[in-house]
Design brief:
By secondary structure, this protein is α+β, with helices and mostly antiparallel strands. The chain has 3 domains: 51-57 and 69-166 and 300-364, Dipeptide-binding Protein, Domain 1 (Dipeptide-binding Protein, domain 1, Alpha-Beta Complex); 174-285, no CATH class; 461-719, Dipeptide-binding Protein, Domain 3 (Dipeptide-binding Protein, domain 3, Roll). The chain is built from 24 helices and 24 strands. The strands form 7 sheets. Strands 15, 16, 17, 18, 21, 22, 23 and 24 form an 8-stranded mixed β-sheet that branches. Strand 21, helix 20 (603-615) and strand 22 (619-624) form a beta-alpha-beta unit. The longest helix has 18 residues, at 552-569. The two termini are 45 Å apart. The model is unreliable at 1-32 (pLDDT under 50).
Length: 755
C-alpha cells in the first residue's frame, strides 16, 4: 500500500486535518451567464485531459464528460457492478428502486474447459464521435494497444491482465529512459546504439540532482490539488500533512532530504512515500520525448494474440486464466483513433494499430485537448476554467445544459460560491464547518433547503481498528482458539463504544458499519440478509450479548461481562472477589494517528475500552502518534493494534488485504493483521474464480465471518461524501436519484437541467 493510498486512508481517519475556513468567495457578484450554463467548481486541474494519461481525479472528471462515463464500452450500475447487456439496457434494483442502465456495449464471459476465459465484446453500431466520425471496434483496439505499449507510462494496468500474448508483445522493447536506468550509472557511459553519451549524462544529472525535489514537489502538488493545502501554502505546510516537520522556509530539496532520512534506504523511502510516481518516472517525464520513445532491446511479438477482432463492432479478449476482477478492465475506452492516432497506420491484419509501436508522442500531444463520444465537446481551458459545450450527437441525447464550466477553486470557497451565485454544483469536504455553512445558508437551517440542496452518499471506504495476530496471541500460536478469544475480548469492548463516539465525532456525516467491507459494495451484507449481525455482538458461547430492551449503560456492562468471558477463554485467571484478572503481565498497545491532538474518530473508542480494561487488570496503552510513526509501525508489522481506513475498490476481491501470501512481511506486505488461514485463502481464491455475482457475495460473506472470528478487524465507521447543488439555479428534480460513489452527479448529465 503506497503513500498515496495511505494518505487517503489517513485523510479518511483525520477528516481532512487541514481545517477549512469559510470566507467570502468574491466581493463582486458572479458574472452574468448565458441561459443553459452550469458552473461546477473543483480543485486545481492538472490539465492532462487525456483518457489515457490523466493523473488526478479532477482531470478524470473532465475526461468522463468528454470521453468516458457513458462513452466507455461497458456501463456500470449504482453498486459498481458491470452491466453485461448495455445495448438493450438492463434493469437493476437499488434501495428498492429499479433503474435501467444502458451503455455502448455488451459483454459475454465464457469460461473454457482448459481454464482460459473469453470476453466476447460487442459495441453499438450507431455511435459517432463529436466531430461526426463513426466509432468502430478499431477505435477500441487502438486504445488497447496504446495502454499495452511497452513504453506506456499512464496509470492504467491493462497490461497486467493474463491476456494471451501480452508478455510476448511487451518484451524486446523499453523506453530509452528505462534502458539507461537499467544499464546503471556504473563507471560511466559505455558506447551503444540505443542512446548517446549526451543523453546518458543528461539523464543521470537530472536523476541525481533534481528528481528527488521533483518527487517532493509531486507530493506538494497532490496536497494542493486535493484540497489538503492551499496553493499559497509553503512546502513545510504540505510536508506536515504528509507526516514530516520541516523548517518554515524549507524547499522541495529539503523535503526530499527529510524523506530519505526517515528510512534505511533511498529505495524504501521512494517506494513508501510516493504520491504516484517514482524518481525514474519523473526523470523521464521531465526530459521528454527522447527518453519516452521505445528502443529495441530484443525480440518481441508483433501483436497481442489474445486481442482478437471478430467484426467491425465486435472483438474477443482471450485470457489464459479467469480473474473475477478482469471484467472491470475490459471496460475499454472508445477513443477516436483518427484523432489520437493515425488511421493510415492502422491495418489490423498486418499488425499495425494506429501508431508506431514504442512511440506514443502523437497520443500525448493531445493531452490538453481531448475528444470523444461523450456528452460534451471540449472548447478549451483558460484562467482556471474548462469550457465544455453540449455534444449534439451524444447517443443519449444532447444535454440540456448547453454550456458546462468546470472552474478551479478551493474547498473553503465551494459553499459560499453557491450562495453568491458563482457556482452551481460542487463537492465540498463534509466537515463540521461545511455543515454549519450549508445550514446557515438555508432558511430552514437544514442541509436541504431553499438555497442549497445537499446529497450525502457513503464514501467507498471505511474506518477500522486492526490487531496483528502475530503480536497479540497466546503462547505464540496466532490461530489458536485461545488467541482468537483474546483478540475478541478487546474487539468486544471496542465495538460497544463505536456508536456513541462516532456519533459524537461525525454527527450525521458517518455511520457505524458491521462488516469489513464498504457499504457501497454490491457484496456488502445487508441488515435484511440471513445471518446478518452486528460486529462482535455474541459472547464466547455464541449467544447474543445484547437485546433491544437494554439501556446504554446496560449494554456497556453486557459488553464488559462478555469481554471477561473471552479473556477467561484465553486462559487468564479472573479473581471474582477483586473483579479483575490477576495474571495478565503483557502491556498491549493501540496506535492512533491523531498527531498528538486526539483528533481521530477511533481515539475515544480506544480510551473508553482502555479504561474498562484497566479496571479488569489489563493494560491497554493508547498512543496518539504522528502519522510517520504510525505508518512506519504498520509497514514494519510492529503495531499490535491500530486505527486506519481503507479505500475500497469496485471489486470486493480480498487477496491484497487478507491473503496469507501477503502476511508476515511477505508478498505485498499488505495483510497487516497477519491472518494466516487456509480456509480463508480457499474462499478468497473461490471468490476470484467465480463469475456468478450472487455466488461471490455468499463466498465473501463466509470469508468475512472468518476474518471476524480471528478477532483481527473491527469496522468502525463509514463516512459520507457530499455534493451540493444550488436549489435556486439547478432543477433539483433532474439530479440523479440514489447517487453513490459509482453513480455521480453528472452520470445523467444529458437530462440534468438548470432553471
Amino acid at each position: 500500500m503506497n503513500k498515496l493510498n495511505r494518505l487517503l486512508a489517513l485523510v479518511l481517519a483525520l477528516i481532512l486535518a487541514c481545517a477549512m475556513s469559510f470566507g467570502v468567495v468574491a466581493e463582486e457578484a458572479a458574472e452574468e451567464r448565458t441561459e443553459g450554463t452550469l458552473v461546477y467548481s473543483t480543485a486545481t486541474l492538472g490539465q492532462k485531459f487525456s483518457p489515457f494519461f490523466y493523473t488526478t481525479a479532477y482531470d478524470g472528471e473532465v475526461v468522463d464528460l468528454i470521453c468516458g462515463t457513458s462513452a466507455d464500452l461497458l456501463a456500470e450500475d449504482r453498486g459498481g457492478a458491470v452491466i453485461n447487456n448495455g445495448i438493450d439496457g438492463t434493469k437493476v434494483a437499488y434501495n428498492g428502486t429499479e433503474y435501467e442502465y444502458k451503455g455502448l456495449g455488451n459483454v459475454e464471459v465464457v469460461q473454457n474447459d482448459d481454464g482460459s476465459v473469453d470476453y466476447n465484446l460487442t459495441m453499438r453500431d450507431d455511435i459517432v464521435f463529436s466531430d461526426g466520425e463513426p466509432a468502430t471496434i478499431d477505435d477500441v483496439i487502438f486504445g488497447i494497444y496504446v495502454e499495452c505499449d511497452p513504453t506506456y507510462d499512464g496509470s492504467e494496468t491493462l497490461y497486467a491482465l493474463p491476456i494471451e500474448g501480452m508478455e510476448e508483445y511487451r518484451s524486446g522493447m523499453d523506453s530509452r529512459g528505462n534502458k539507461i536506468f537499467a544499464d546503471g550509472e556504473g563507471d560511466g557511459y559505455v558506447a551503444n546504439d540505443l542512446y548517446t553519451e549526451e543523453q546518458y549524462n543528461e539523464f543521470w544529472k537530472f536523476y541525481n540532482e533534481e528528481a528527488g525535489a521533483a518527487f517532493a514537489q509531486e507530493i506538494v502538488d497532490y496536497c494542493i490539488s486535493n484540497g489538503y493545502n492551499a496553493p499559497e501554502d509553503p512546502v513545510a505546510a504540505c510536508a506536515a500533512n504528509w507526516g514530516f516537520e520541516l523548517a518554515e522556509d524549507a524547499t522541495t530539496y529539503d523535503f526530499w532530504d527529510a524523506i530519505v532520512a526517515a528510512y534505511d534506504s533511498v529505495e524504501e523511502a521512494e517506494a513508501t512515500e510516493t504520491a504516484g510516481s517514482n524518481r525514474l518516472q519523473l526523470t523521464i517525464a521531465a526530459l521528454g520525448a527522447d527518453y519516452e520513445v521505445g528502443v529495441q532491446t530484443g525480440e518481441g511479438a508483433p501483436n497481442i494474440a489474445g486481442i482478437i477482432r471478430t467484426g467491425d463492432y465486435s472483438m474477443t479478449v482471450h485470457m489464459t486464466e479467469y480473474d473475477a476482477t478482469a471484467i472491470y478492465n475490459v471496460d475499454f475506452k472508445v477513443a477516436p483513433m483518427h484523432y489520437y492516432g493515425d488511421k493510415a497506420l492502422y491495418d489490423y491484419d498486418n499488425n499495425q494499430f494506429g501508431f508506431v509501436k514504442g512511440d506514443l508522442s502523437g497520443v500525448k500531444a493531445k493531452n490538453s485537448a481531448p475528444m470523444g463520444a461523450g456528452a460534451y465537446i471540449f472548447e478549451g481551458y483558460a484562467n482556471g476554467v474548462v469550457t465544455l459545450k453540449a455534444n449534439p450527437t451524444y447517443y443519449k441525447g444532447e444535454p440540456k445544459v448547453k454550456t458546462l464550466l468546470i472552474q478551479e477553486s478551493v474547498d473553503s470557497d465551494y459553499v459560499p460560491g453557491i450562495v453568491t451565485g458563482q457556482f452551481d454544483v460542487n463537492q465540498p469536504s463534509i466537515s463540521e464547518d461545511t455543515v454549519k455553512a450549508i445550514q446557515s445558508a438555508n432558511s430552514n437551517g437544514e442541509l436541504v433547503g431553499d438555497t442549497i440542496t445537499t446529497v450525502l452518499v457513503d464514501y467507498r471506504g471505511y474506518g477500522y481498528i486492526g490487531i496483528n495476530a502475530d503480536l497479540v496471541n497466546i503462547g505464540g500460536e496466532p490461530g489458536s482458539d485461545a488467541s482468537k478469544a483474546l483478540r475478541k475480548g478487546f474487539m468486544t469492548l471496542f465495538a460497544i463504544y463505536r456508536d456513541t463516539v462516532i456519533k459524537s465525532y461525525y454527527g450525521d456525516r458517518a455511520s457505524v458499519i458491521q462488516y469489513p467491507i464498504s457499504n457501497t459494495s454490491w457484496a456488502a451484507p445487508k441488515p435484511a440478509d440471513e445471518g446478518y449481525r452486528n460486529a462482535y455482538s455474541v459472547d464466547v458461547d455464541g449467544n447474543p450479548i445484547y437485546d433491544d430492551s437494554m439501556s446504554e449503560e446496560q449494554r456497556y456492562e453486557a459488553a464488559r461481562q462478555a469481554a471477561i468471558g473471552y479473556f477467561k477463554a484465553a486462559g487468564f485467571t479472573f479473581d471474582e472477589e477483586a473483579g479483575k484478572f490477576t495474571d495478565v503481565a503483557d502491556t498491549y498497545e493501540i496506535m492512533i494517528p491523531g498527531d498528538g491532538q486526539q483528533d481521530h474518530p477511533a481515539y475515544g473508542v480506544a480510551v473508553a475500552a482502555s479504561n474498562v480494561l484497566a479496571e479488569l487488570g489489563i493494560t491497554l496503552q493508547v498512543n496518539d502518534v504522528g502519522t510517520s510513526v504510525w505508518n512506519n509501525a504498520l509497514e514494519g508489522n510492529t503495531a499490535m493494534m491500530w486505527a486506519a481506513a481503507w479505500q475500497a475498490s469496485v471489486d470486493p476481491d480480498m487477496t491484497q488485504v487478507y491473503s496469507s501470501e501477503n502476511a508476515h512481511g511477505n508478498g505485498t506486505n499488505s495483510n497487516h493483521y497477519s491472518v494466516d488461514d487456509p480456509d480463508l485463502d480457499a474462499l478468497i481464491k473461490a471468490g476470484r474464480s467465480s463469475a456468478d455475482t450472487e455466488e461471490r457475495k455468499s463466498i465473501y460473506k463466509d470469508a468475512m465471518e472468518i476474518i471476524m472470528d480471528w478477532g483481527c478487524e473491527l469496522p468502525t465507521y463509514q463516512r459520507k461524501d457530499c455534493t451540493t447543488f444550488s436549489t435556486e439555479r439547478v432543477d433539483i428534480d433532474t439530479i440523479p436519484q440514489d447517487m453513490t460513489p459509482y453513480w455521480k452527479w453528472y452520470y445523467e448529465i444529458s437530462t440534468l437541467a438548470v432553471k
